[in-house]
Amino acid sequence: MDLQQRINAFIKLGTFLGQFTTDGITKKNDIEANDLFFDGFKHQIKLAKAHNGWFTENNILFSLESWHKALADRTINKWVKKYNFNSLNPQKIAIIMAGNIPLVGFHDFLSVLISGHKVLVKQSSNDKHLLPFLAKYLEVVEPGFKGKITFTEEKLEGFDAVIATGSDNTARYFEYYFKDKPSIIRKNRNSVAVLTGDETPEQLEALSEDIFRYYGLGCRNVSKLFVPESYNFDAFFSAVYKWHPIIHQAKYANNYDYNKAVYLMSEFEMLENGFLMVKEDQSYASPIATIFYETYNSIEALEQKLKADDDKIQCVVAHNLSENEIAFGETQKPQLWDYADNVDTVDFLLKI
């Protein structure tokens, strides 16, 4: 396979995924291998939903719709044009995937295959139904992928490099275990939003998408707010209220009740609106149904803090703060060139 064949295969996959959106699932004509895969993928969505209580149909479809958009012809070609794939020495790349949100490891999977390597995938048990089926679709629309994609539940063996995603604790294990291999080891990261008090209702409502999408389980979910001293949260609570049905999801409600009880028994001060608690805390990682906040005196001092804590932060949501900021409501819509931990995965793969 040459690069264009690999690109074409993923474009076809993106077209296939375009049938599965948050507006509904609709079978379309003229999609390659659709009769073979459409009904089967609907079934995989049901299995993923039944297997993991956090994987609601809406969140699964949101992920699929996002990948449909990312795998567009123009987008993929814009992504790959900065790289030179001509001198690649094909290797077998192991990927250890997280399972916090649907298809969270797909970008690594895509990066390895688009680069021309073979992939050895060890999935999280929380997210094991969707990707193997999509891999079969790729093998049908581009037979050159056959033999280049392997999934395993056993110990990883016979690989040349590894990309592993986990917690800070598992990262220490990964770093020791894979010390003799080229690797990308990802640790815990969280996203933050910087508020000034001048945000429009539309901006704050968009921020609610950054907070609540995937129940806040992703590293790109905003888990902490930086606000000026004496910030009034009334406008914030008003803007996020559209997400109040989230409390009817059992796993979310259980976390809300548990964390609220802990805070009350510990006599922590907090604000809450029946489905979200806001607590002052210096930590970046907040529990489910909670968002932390911290006050700042000056933008300059805050910028220094964010720079010092760069290795803990995935996204900074803000308006006119810095050139690397992300707009309100955009954290769960990353581009192909928005790499986790700001480590260029394709550049790493091309230098192995």
Topology of this structure?
Layout: H1 3-17, E1 20-21, E2 24-25, H2 34-51, H3 57-70, H4 73-80, E3 92-96, H5 106-115, E4 118-122, H6 130-141, E5 149-151, E6 161-165, H7 168-177, E7 183-186, E8 190-194, H8 201-212, E9 222-228, H9 234-240, H10 250-265, E10 271-272, E11 277-280, E12 290-296, H11 299-308, E13 313-317, H12 345-350
Parallel strand pairs: 3-4, 3-6, 4-5, 6-7, 8-9, 8-13, 9-12, 11-12
Antiparallel strand pairs: 1-2, 10-11
Helix pairs in contact: 1-3, 1-5, 1-6, 2-6, 8-9
Organism: Winogradskyella luteola
Keywords: NADP
Protein name: Acyl-CoA reductase
Index terms:
about 350 residues; 2 domains; 5-stranded parallel beta sheet; NADP; Acyl-CoA reductase; acyl-CoA dehydrogenase activity
State the gist of this model.
The protein has 352 residues and is of the alpha/beta class.
Task: Provide a descriptive summary of the structure in words.
The protein is an alpha/beta fold. It has two domains: 3-187, 3-Layer(aba) Sandwich (Aldehyde Dehydrogenase, Chain A, domain 1); 190-317, Aldehyde Dehydrogenase, Chain A, domain 2. Helix content is 39%, strand content 16%. The protein has twelve helices and 13 strands. It has helices at residues 3-17, 34-51, 57-70, 73-80, 106-115, 130-141, 168-177, 201-212, 234-240, 250-265, 299-308, 345-350, and strands at 20-21, 24-25, 92-96, 118-122, 149-151, 161-165, 183-186, 190-194, 222-228, 271-272, 277-280, 290-296, 313-317. A six-stranded mixed beta sheet has the order 10-11-12-9-8-13. A five-stranded parallel beta sheet has the order 5-4-3-6-7, with helices on both faces. Strands 1-2 form a two-stranded antiparallel ribbon. Strand 6, helix 7 (168-177) and strand 7 (183-186) form a beta-alpha-beta unit. The longest helix is centred in the N-terminal third of the chain and has 18 residues, at 34-51. The protein is globular. The two termini are 19 Å apart. The mean pLDDT is 96.
